[in-house]
Amino acid sequence: MLSKTFKLEAEQVAWVEEHARTHGSCGAVIRNLIEQQRENPARLSLHQRSKHLIVRNGGAKDLSTRPLTGYGRD
Fold this sequence. Notes:
The protein has helices at residues 10-23, 26-39, 46-50. The chain is mostly helical. The protein has a domain at 8-43.
């Protein structure tokens, strides 16, 4: 069984209490936030969102090891 008591930072408590004024109670704010998170999981990182744009062309895996030509290092 999940405990109904948990610790928050002072700023977090103030935020929840402020929003509770318009949402009815602190519990309602917390439940609403949990439901929002369940419906919309954490945002994807930029890499995850742009993975389909990455082209695998067999080049060097680490570009710092790629030999430079034409850039003053001939």
